[in-house]
Amino acid sequence: MICSVLSLDVGRRRIGLAGCDPLGITVTPLPALHRSHYSSDLPLLQEHCQRRSVQGLVVGLPLDDAGAPTQQAEHCRRYGLRLAASLQLPLAWVNEHSSSWAAGERHGLNGDRSGRLDSAAAALLLEQWLREGPELKPAQFMASGPGAGGVDGGS
User: What gap in Å lies between CA 29 and CA 9, rounded to an integer?
Assistant: First the structure.
């Protein structure tokens, strides 16, 4: 099911954002969110979702070379579950291994700290999800462990 989706590349300092049109034809990097606390992030993300009529979230999980969850993957998983529950939106996980590197290479953004690299990585995650899935699921049905619940193994 293609729909308007918001993709998140969750980091400790910034969240890269990208969106797609309801037909899944155009993926657009959006301005990154410079983080403070979840309580400050939530209204900004709610506004993005309302303005873009978002119907689902795609959250990147940084898995290692062997496909195992990293410590950051657990943080991203918790953040994604909390956000999906708060916004009452279904979500999907995508393996974001090497996404920042790939985005930096593709767009010449290596070393960027403005957030453009983070949003370019979120756009790559969304493109991957549009090609490969998995289906969006309600947060309460997502598996509890990091890297579980239908993480796509692609990079």
Answer: 11
Can you name the residues that pair with 27 across neighbouring β-strands?
20
Q: Which residues contact 1 (CB under 8 A, 6 or more apart)?
A: 135, 136
Per-residue pLDDT reduced to its tens digit, 125-135: 999 999 888 89
Strands, sheet with 5-10, edge to edge from the N-terminal-most edge strand: 27-34, 14-20, 5-10, 56-61, 91-95
30: Cα separation from own chain's centroid: 12
Phi, psi angle pair for 107, to nearest 5°: -110, 5
- Does this model's pTM top 0.70? My answer is yes
Cis peptide before 146, with omega less than 30 degrees from 0? Answer: no
pLDDT at 101 over 50: no
> Could you give all domains of the chain from N- to C-terminal order, each with its CATH number?
5-141 (3.30.420.140)
80-99: per-residue pLDDT in tens? 999 999 999 999 999 875 55
